[in-house]
Amino acid sequence: MKTALLEELQQARTEKRQVVLATNLKSGDQKLLYPFETEYSSDLSEAARNALRSDKPATFEAEDGPVFLNIFNPPLRLFIVGAVHIAQALVPMAAAADYEVTVIDPRRSFGSSFRFPNVTLDNRWPDEAFESLSPDRRSAIVTLTHDAKLDDPALQFALKSDAFYIGALGSGRTHAKRQQRLISAGFTETDFSRIHGPIGLDIGAKSPAEIAISIMAEIIAVLRRKEVK
Amino acid sequence: MTNPTTTLPEDDILAQALNWKKDGRKVALATVISTWGSAPRPAGSQLAIDETGQMAGSVSGGCVEGAVIQEALEIIKSGAPKTLEFGVSNDEAWEVGLACGGKINVFVEKLD
């Protein structure tokens, strides 16, 4: 491997880009692929996309020999808006599933390290926090505040991001009102359909911990399967 | 507020390889490219080796690292990449002890 190529790879990883190192196992020739950053499609780029999506390296049979596709995915991240009771249960579950978790809540009595030890707390408004945290294709965003003043700016930002999962707590009725607000803010029905609401898999969850389990299960299902409704 | 966009884990193997290289050492990289059965480390796992035999990371959790290092030192000299096979069907693998009964292929290359 050329040192310059390794430096480029490390730079891409630092920037949290999804990158694949393709190595021809016969010749040793190597290149970096960024298959999600281009419209260009070939069998190789499709294989690279699949490897990144499934989080597993793969070997692609090219004409000039097998090509090993080693994947470098940024860490999975979960942004929880609303330092509420459900969030307290969700944080350790997400951490156990290897997500880097950030809890966002400008109301300091909610988002305090007393209530949330061992997790990154962000006391900025959601849209301001997201501006610098830049949620990406490997990020999940969950809003739990029940308060449109906090949830809506977060959802508006989320819909403009590549986050693979967006979920909003609230009943069917709350969700319908939310839909009206976001549509009048300029979002389309298709945009809105990205939001999972009412949030979580339908397992009849009642307690905060059970709701957290249903949310985590839905996030995993969306990440690992292609489409879940 | 911490900025999460600019860090890699402290134990990053590729960062270690790059540091060694910048120190003026000769470096090889080994990568698990395929596994069968109960292999201890999945495909994509990496081991960095410097010219003195120092290593960072793992390709098998200790079973075949010794043999990989020997080959890596040769590849550092020759510059030609090579795929190594370890497994039940390979007598040498038993000698170096892939006791789990799995099979792994490891691609070893020099960092030029």
UniProtKB/TrEMBL annotation, chain A:
Protein name: XdhC family protein
Organism expressing this protein natively: Sneathiella sedimenti
Superkingdom of the source species: Bacteria
Pfam families to which the protein is assigned, alphabetical: XdhC_C (PF13478)
Domain XdhC Rossmann: 78-219
InterPro entries noted in UniProt: MoCofactor_Util/Proc, XdhC_Rossmann_dom
UniProtKB/TrEMBL annotation, chain B:
Pfam families in alphabetical order: XdhC_CoxI
InterPro entries, per the entry: MoCofactor_Util/Proc, XdhC_CoxI
Residue stretches making up the XdhC- CoxI domain: 20-87
Domain of life: Bacteria
Protein name (Swiss-Prot/TrEMBL): XdhC- CoxI domain-containing protein
Originating species: Sneathiella sedimenti
